[in-house]
Amino acid sequence: MRCETMSSQNPEAISDALADWSLDRPGIVFQECGSCRQRWYFQRRFCPHCGDGNPSLRQARGIGVVYSATEVHRAPTEALRAYAPYTILLIDAEEGFRMMAHGAAGLVIGERVQAGYRTVAGKLLPFYESEQHG
Amino acid sequence: MSWITGVGLTGFGKSPGFDTLDLMSEAASQAIADAGLERKDIDGLVCGYSTTLPHLMLATVFAEHFGLKPAYAHAIQMGGATGFGMAMLAHELVQAGTVRNILVVAGENRLTGQSRDSTVQTLAQVGHPRYEVPLGPIIPAYYALLAARYMHEFGIDSADIAEFAVLMRRHAALRPGAHLTKAITVEEVVASRPIALPLRVMDCCPVSDGGAAFVVSRSRTGSHGVRIIGASQAHRHQHISALPDIAATGAAEAMSRALSQAGAMVSDARYLAIYDSFTITLCMLLEELGVAPRGRAPEMAREGRFSFDGPLPLNTHGGLLSYGHCGVGGALAHLVETHLQMTGRAGVRQAKEVSLALLHGDGGVFSSHVSLILEQAQ
User: How confident is the model at residue A12 (pLDDT cuts 50, 70, 90)?
Assistant: First the structure.
């Protein structure tokens, strides 16, 4: 697992060194505070819990449990309409943060899942499947 | 303490040819007349926002258009919580002595003023721009994620939450001006078109045109005796990915503070005005607020406890689910209906005793919470 320290640089530039789907590289990145050990998903320059200014960026393993799931039939854009219905999940990652992702149809709450990646409407997205298939 | 001295509400639904300022003006005219006041008596103005009239200074735009010269005016934005947030702000400004008579007004031609896709996309932007919106969620998908988890944790199903769609429709049929009035059954709700499962189209409020307004005053201006005796908020997250606890979203925290200011308890309530963007919204709020035990709100609805003629009437105008949802004005309609009930003007929907009402709204994805306590005065 790679850990890096961010200081004055912009978070996108730093996370570029790791695989981060939100920057079009297949992988999931989370942050951890070196001071209070809080972990979270949405990147920022400081710890939202204690205010420490040097959180690290870490690569997640992509393993988690389904917290919730919905099958979306009404897509918001023309580009996404071709993919509907698609499944949107909230995943509790084993590292201790929660994230939104796409996933296989039929996944149920509590199921252990593993992340893969798919390009949907021109955008790389995390796509979870049941762990035994992953 | 502050007084709600007048209310105004347009019909919701399709109002072709009426824009945001037209709908705001219609509701404002009604509210000022109902308060027995004139434009010159209004020294404060609070607005929300309109997706069909995005503007940096909506309050001043409206003041110029409508013909007000207030000493205090601005807009606020709290998503679906904006309506009750404006009511709380008006209450605080009156209590602080900043204003004497403050107009709270909202209106939007959300249905006919833009395309359906445009509405859906604008609303979905309450999601995180980097980690949620690219996945293609829509507002119903955020609430569907809440619904699926809530059903899992508290043992309810789609037919249970459908009770609220049926109840709101029954109330709307008795309310002139409601957007949707055709009677529906639980079977029809659970068989309706899927939007973001477990939510189907009849679990979702419609998009409407409409306007609503009221005046909050330092003292009574006419015969209406309705006052705000408690108001509070809670904000624990913005995005659903960051929601810490589905059973403690902030709703109970806000209501508990408002009740404490009012010296009241949930059991003192004789009327409920609860935000109902989706059937699951109503179910979760009723249970977190302590009106119903966990997993029991649907059963109470089925037993008729929340009917206009039951022991604890809820949204007797039909709520967002059936009176309609025009954006900021949507929740204001809940407040207007509460006022009509407290002043004996609810016609065939009139509840027997409406001495104390609890109002609660949420914005975003259970992100912003506002609770209000209204009391009837002789």
Answer: low
